[in-house]
Structures are given as C-alpha cells and as structure tokens.
Amino acid sequence: MNLQNVNLNHFVHAYKIAPWRIQRQWIGSVLLAVVTLAMIAALYLDVTAQAAIAGREIQDLTAAIAASEQASADLQTQLAALTSASVMEQRAEALGFRPMETVEVEYLIVPGYTAPKAEILAAAPLPQLSAPTISPEYNQSLLDWLDETLSSSSSGGLQ
Amino acid sequence: MRQQYAWRSNTLGGILGLIALVIIVQIVRIQNSEEAAIFRQRALNYASELRTFYPDRGEIYDRNGHLLAGNITVYEVGVDLTTVKDANAIAMTVSVELGVDFAETLALIQNPPEGLSYLVIKDFVDAEKAASLQQLKVMMQEQAADGALGSLTGLEFKAHPQRSYPEGALASNVLGFVNREGRGYFGVEEKYDTLLAGNPVHVIVPTDPNKAVDIPHVPDGTTLVLTINRDLQAAVEGILDDALDTYGADGGTIVVMDPRNGEILAMAVTPRMDLNQFWNYGVIYQNASEFNPAISMPYEPGSVTKILTMAAALDTGTVQPGTQFLDTGSILVGGINIRNWNSEAWGMQDMTGCLQHSLNVCLAWVSTQMGAQNFYGYMDNFGFGHLTGVDLAGEAAGRLKVPGDADWYPVDLGTNAFGQGVAATPIQIMMAASSIANNGRIVTPHALHAMVRDGRQYSAPAQYAGSPISEQTAGTLSAMLAVSLENESSLALVPGYRVAGKTGTAQIPTETGFYDTTSTNASFIGWGPVDEPQFMIYVWLEKPSASIWGSETAAPVFSQVAEKTVILMDIPPDAVRQQIAVK
Lengths: 159, 583
Prior knowledge:
The complex is a heterodimer of chains A (about 160) and B (about 575).
Chain A: H1 2-17, H2 19-82, H3 85-94, H4 142-158
Chain B: H1 2-31, H2 34-47, E1 48-53, E2 60-61, E3 67-80, H3 87-98, H4 102-110, E4 118-126, H5 127-143, E5 155-164, H6 172-175, E6 177-178, E7 184-185, H7 187-191, H8 193-197, E8 201-206, E9 223-226, H9 230-247, E10 251-257, E11 264-269, H10 281-284, H11 293-296, H12 306-316, E12 325-327, E13 330-333, E14 336-339, E15 347-349, H13 351-356, H14 360-370, H15 372-382, H16 411-417, H17 426-437, E16 448-453, E17 456-459, H18 471-487, E18 500-509, E19 515-528, E20 535-542, H19 554-568, H20 574-582
Parallel strand pairs in B: 2-9
Antiparallel strand pairs in B: 1-8, 2-3, 3-4, 3-5, 6-7, 9-16, 10-11, 10-20, 12-15, 13-14, 16-17, 18-19, 19-20
Helix pairs in contact in B: 3-4, 9-19, 12-14, 12-15, 12-18, 14-16
C-alpha cells in the first residue's frame, strides 16, 4: 500500500516537473494571450466598421433629407404658381364665373358661426437633429471608451 | 539529440525574434520619420473641412396662407478639372444647352487659372436645363466603352435654393426682392432680411465617417405671414390699373388698411415689377422712391388734410360742427390772399359745409383761429414729418415746416390747413386719419401679421402711437364727413354701407418753386362702416387727365375698392350688421 503510494507520488511529481509540460503551459498561455488580443482586435474592427457604416449612412440620410426639403420647397412653389391669383382668375373666367357685386351678396345669420381668422402656419416642431441626441455608444470607438473610462476612474480616485 | 534540437529551436526563435524586433524598430522609425510627419500633416488637412451651412430663406405668406415668396432649386454647373476627359465635348454641350461661349469655355477648361481645380461654368441654371444636362452626361457614360469614362466626365452640378415669387408682380412693392447674393431689397425682404435669411452655421466636419459627428441642425430662416390679403391685393391692383386707363393718370397708389389695428390689407402702386426678374429694376424705376410710393414718395396731399385740420379745431374747441363761417371767396393770411378751389364765394357755411365743399378759405380761417402753436402741435402729434414706423423698407418722413424754420412763412399756416406746402406719404396720412376712425387712437401701420420659427408662430401685436384727439372729436368728425359725402351724393358712396371720407385735389409744385397750373394730384381718404370702421382706403392718382378733380377720379375709385373690400373681407352691409347686433 505504501509502495503504491510512493510510486504514485513520484509519478505525479515527475509529471508536474516534466519539461514538455512546462513548455506547453507557456505555449498555451501565449496562445491564449494571442487569441484574446485577436478577439479584441476583431471586436474593435467590427465596431469600427459598424461605426463607419453608420456614419456614412448618417451622411447619406442627411443629404437625402436636404434633397427632400429642396424638392418639397420646389413643389410648394410650383403649386403656388399654379394657384396664383391671376391663374385662378383666368380659370374662373374660363369656367364662366365673374366677380360678384355687393348687391348680389346674400348674408345669412348662422348662430354660433365665427368668422375665419388669419392663417396659422405653425406646424409641429421638427425633431432635433443635432449632436446631443446621439448617445456616445453610437459614435465612440472602443479606444475612446477605454480612454474615457480610465480617465474617469482616475479622476474619480483623485476626488 | 535533445540538446541539438534545443539549439536549433533557440537559433530559430532568436532569428524570428530578431526579425520581429527589426520590424518593430522599422515601424517606430517610419512613424517618427520626417516623411511621416509630412504625411500626418497632409492627412490632418483632409481629415476635416470647415463647412458653412446656409439655412433656406424663410417663406412669405399672405394672411390666408397663400405663398407669396418661396424657394426653388437651381443649379451651379461647373467642371471638376481633375477628372475632365473631353474638354471639347463639355464646352460644346454647355454652349448649346446653357448658351455660354464655346471658345471661351474651352479655353478656360484647357488652360485654367493656376491652382484652380473646379471651374464654375454657369450658376442659377433652372432645374429643367440641369436635368437635361445630367441626363446627357449619363447617356454619354453609358455609351462609353466598358471601364472607360464618358466624354462629359467632370461636368458637375451643385443644387442650391433661389428665391421665387409665384405671384410674379403681385404686391411687388410690399414684398421687395432678393438678389443673387441673397440680400433683400425693399419691402419686407429688406426690412426683415436678417430674420428671413436665418443664421449661417460654420462647422468643422470630419471626413472620417468613424468620427461622424452629426450634421448640425440648421434652422431655416423665419417664415413671415403678412397682413396682406392676396385676393384683395390682386383686385385693388386691377382697379388701380383700370383707373389709370380710365382717368389717364401718370401713376397711382391705393392702400387698404384696417384702422382698428393698422394691418395693411392691400397696397397697390404703379409701376410694379415681376420680382422673378428683379434685374429689370433699373429699367422700370428711375429712383428708389418709385418702388413703393405709398411709403416713400411724399407729396402735397391737398384737401384730404382738411380732416386733420378740422379734427384739431374740434378737439381744441376752436369750432363746433355748427359754427358758422361766411365764405367771401378769399382770406388774407400772412399777407397772401388764399382762394377757394373755384375762386368763388360760398356764403354762410357751417363746418360740415366747409368740408363738404372743400373750402380752402374756411379751413385757412379755422387754422388761423386755432393759432400756429395749436395747429402745428396737432400736426406733429398726427405724425407729419415723422416716420410712421411701417415695417417696409425705404420709408420717407415727408416734411412739415413749422414756425422757426428758415423756409416757414406766416401764409403756411393757412395753406398747410388744406394740405399745400406740406409733404406727406399716403401711409402717413392714413396713420394720422386712423385716429378719427379709431376713437381717437392712432395705429401704427404694419404688414407683418405673424412669424413662424422652429414650429412656433408669434403674432405681431397692434401698436398704437398715441391719442392726438378725443374719442368724442373722432366720432363727431366721422359723422360730419359721412354727412358731407351723403349731402354731396359723392361718387365715393358705397351702396349698403355708410362711409366717411374726404377728397383732395392738390396742385403740384414744380422745380421753379411755383405750382403746375395744368395738372393735379387727385386723392381720396375714406373709411367705413362709420359706426364700426373695418377698412380705411387711400387713393392717390397722379396727374389724371380725364379730370383734375379728386371728386371725379379718386372718389369713384375709392368706391370700387370699398366694394371689393367688403366682399373679400366678409363685411356685411350696415343693415345686416345692425340686425346681428340686435340679436
């Protein structure tokens, strides 16, 4: 029983101090570090690529908004030209209408009727498209985040 | 054996390590070399660009939401000199499509000024022509061989907004115009230029999308809503044009204002200009005051001023409506004999009769009875010689000579009483007369109803400029003027509506200092309905040839404008209003 225990201890000890085992441990550690670095690099690359794509999309969308606004202004002005006073007068005359005389106007008293007031053109406020609406997560790189975290933690320690 | 393998491994590891070290050293050396610093500097130069975002100019609407001034997209057509493939093709295409000179364009593209990488061929090209050129460029690209560039490569298009006026010349004197540099001239375009133009934003934009800071939100210029009623403006301009034809007048001005709050509902003048062709300004107008005579061309208004003289006299208690005056046909003031318009004596008249027959002699007597201090004090309070503050660019203050001025003579007290020897603009007289129509309170005329910015609408409140006369005086004088029109069966009367008003026929001073004996300025000022004034109309016809008298020219024009006004502004006849009031 004792002999068996001694042999097992010797075997375990020999296994532990075997040079090839130590080498493997070193290689494993190095490989682990390399894989970890590769994963961080891949993650960084992925985030950076996504940020770049998002940035490009923002630029495209901004250009599209500007183009839409210009097109809208164009159409609005065209519509105004098509319904201008002179055009409407011509169309009315072509349809057989003529300006009304004061004696031809009949006024009816409608209880509760309120005369129309001048136009109110204010629309709902547009969404704010300025930088403060975008949280840092969408435009901050991993290094930026790391830098900010480190600097905030160090400044926190000083306080 | 094991030792041998170890040696080999160590040697290999050392060599690889050395190579890695050399690579690292080389990386560090390159990154810190002089060339690297130059490249970094170059990269920095392209890493961001300073861009200026110009907001779209605010639009202008009438009080009912009709667009009077908007923006359209036009294009700057240019050539990117770094990518030009066929200069001949580009020069030929733009010369045909845009009408630019072929040889000149070709020379510019082939031998551009040093350091230039982009060349503007033509700006403000309309969208249709730009689209046609763009289509042509695409077609040429499609026809080019695989992988080759089209012959119009390098032709570039940059869109930008341009001011557009869908109503053309309508209310041109009120709106003003914007030149190609984006600066407003005349009217509201100049008066509210800063508001309409908005604030350009300068931003450093990184080109690296990773640093995609958001494009800044550039709010558009403020949108304005005017007090003008487009349909009334069009109708009044039509009436004015017809009146010039009918009465053979050289020019004319008609202003319609709400005397309760000073809102200008229509302001028609001649000549007018198609604002989309503002470059014709120099052809149409000889000087700036012609653009909007209603506010910038003071003239001797003549007898319309009598209502102000009478207002002052009633307010001071100098006369009462029933005060009798024996008109002998002339009166001596300051050593000068003043006569009536027809040089006749009108006998015994009360003050209503003096206004009804527009007697110069009577009003000169009234002003002398009042005294210079009182008379000029009231005229000053009425705003003569002062700017009204109307929110249109280019207003003139006119001139009221007062005792103490080098060119004031005692006779002026008499002549000023009936509107000669004093210069005022139509808008000044309307502002002064608003005190009579508005229970003694003067309103400041204005064209801005509201402004819209960032989705919010701000209304422009009515402003009052004092109370030169009492409410009682205003009521008394309004009634006198209404009676005087009715007694005379004036052509200014409006069926169904009781109106108050006064004609004016003024002599025109010449450069020699004497009055023109052949032509006059015919005017009329009136308001209604008398018991609840909702409109005030001023008519000025310059040198009418069909008749020199305001009662035969300006008065019927007033009536026509009033009829249009009550229809378009939904003002029921007196009988209907009284019926509503009873209920």
